[in-house]
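User: quick one, sequence for these tokens?
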């Protein structure tokens, strides 16, 4: 008597169909179509995780630039000035300081201006 591989195939199908839960129509019911949809969705999700990092960096830079211009500096001059004065601060923290503590950001801008 031979052993059939039905159980493993069923497990594989169920795994894919579970991931396709919530999709419309055949995408959530038929294995072949669900597999394509899930593969594409996982690919897009991976891309999205990379894209999100880029978008946050863009946002931080835009915020820093806006705050720097209020203090009479451009973004690039501010960053160069901070680097020259030995202030190591990442863009995320700089944007947080710019929003939450304008006086503190002004002090950073002044120290950057002094080094230019």
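Assistant:
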């Amino acid at each position: 008597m031979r052993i059939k591989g039905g159980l493993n195939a069923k497990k594989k199908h169920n795994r894919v169909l579970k991931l396709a839960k919530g999709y419309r129509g055949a995408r959530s019911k038929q294995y072949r179509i669900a597999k394509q949809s899930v593969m594409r969705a996982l690919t897009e999700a991976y891309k999205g995780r990379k894209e999100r990092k880029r978008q946050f960096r863009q946002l931080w830079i835009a915020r820093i630039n806006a705050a720097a211009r209020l203090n009479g500096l451009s973004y690039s001059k501010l960053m160069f000035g901070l680097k020259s004065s030995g202030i190591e601060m990442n863009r995320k923290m700089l944007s947080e300081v710019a929003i939450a503590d304008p006086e503190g950001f002004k002090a950073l801008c002044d120290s950057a201006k002094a080094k230019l």
